[in-house]
């Protein structure tokens, strides 16, 4: 599990990514390729994400999972 991934490494990954919105607390697990971030983008992933629930941009906490069980635990909290 890796905290504070950057866009570039997520764009190159098939991993699952967990995102928790700091504004509304919504927690989701998505596939890295569904985030639409680009290789060569070296911003922190959090800066590029908009919450799908409340629409807040750039205020979330993201983690990159190495193992499926980590993502399952994260989603279940
Ligand atoms: Zn939100």
Structure description:
With 77 residues, this protein is α+β, with helices and mostly antiparallel strands. It has one domain. The chain is built from 3 helices and 4 strands, in the order βαββαβα. It is globular. The two termini are 15 Å apart. The structure holds zinc ion. The site of zinc ion has 8 residues, from loops.
Main traits of this protein?
alpha+beta; binds zinc ion; four-stranded antiparallel beta sheet; globular; 3 helices; single chain; 77 residues
| Number of DSSP-assigned strands | 4
Question: Count the helices. How many?
Answer: 3
Helix content: 10-25%
Order of helices and strands: EHEEHEH
What's the Cα radius of gyration? 11 Å
- Major beta sheet, strand line-up: 1-4-2-3
The major β-sheet equals: 4 strands, antiparallel
List ligands, each type once: zinc ion
What count of structural domains? 1
Anisotropy-based shape: globular
The quaternary state of the protein chains shown equals: single chain
Span of the ends, CA to CA: 15 Å
Structural class: alpha+beta
Strand content: 15-25%
Residue windows where pLDDT falls under 50 for at least 5 positions: none
